[in-house]
Amino acid sequence: MRKLKIILSVLVTFIVAIVLTHSCKKDSTSNISKNNESRSHNMGQNCMNCHKSGGSGTGTFNVAGTVYNATITSTNGNGTVHIFTGSAGTGIVEAVIEVDSKGNFFTTNTVDFTNGLYPAITGTTGTTKFMNSKATSGQCNSCHGVSTDKIWVN
């Protein structure tokens, strides 16, 4: 009887380890946007609705959003998002994220928004727009296009 309990205990521990490893594997997957890539989808939606711990998207995004053209009639791809510790491009650069060809940017890399950060978007023409207020989350499309203007650049 004692051997059976030990075997069952080891078996349960093994099964739990497999389940935890499998369920965490998706969340630790690296998924980062790159200029000229076109594998993203759902432009304008809050990416973190799916790309979250336990979500159906590949990887847990820490920063994600969509960039539009100046008239906000279509997305604007292949730019770059810089995230600074200070306003108007000052302070330390915490992250640099390329915008893909569909206008989406995303990263599973860690970006700490605890003290607030200041994003900036640079378009392919070299024009840069700065967010004037602190961002306390990397869920850009949760506000932009919902309660504030969409992100746009020339």
Instruction: Measure the end-to-end span.
Output: 73 Å
Indicate the percent of residues in helices: 10-25%
Instruction: Please provide the ordered H/E string of secondary-structure elements.
Output: HEEEEEEE
Order of adjacent strands in the largest pleated sheet: 3-2-5-6
In terms of quaternary structure, the protein is single chain
Q: Give a quick account of the main beta sheet: strands, pairing sense, barrel closure.
A: 4 strands, antiparallel
Q: Quote the average pLDDT.
A: 88
The number of distinct helices, counting runs of at least 4 residues, comes to 1
Overview of the structural elements:
- The strands form two sheets. A four-stranded antiparallel β-sheet has the order 3-2-5-6, with no helix packed on it. A three-stranded mixed β-sheet has the order 4-1-7, with no helix packed on it.
- The protein is built from one helix and seven strands.
- Residues 11-26 have low confidence and may be disordered.
- Strand 5 (118-122) and strand 6 form a beta hairpin.
- It has two domains: 1-29; 31-152, no CATH class.
- The chain has 154 residues and is an alpha+beta fold.
- The protein is globular, with a radius of gyration of 20 Å.
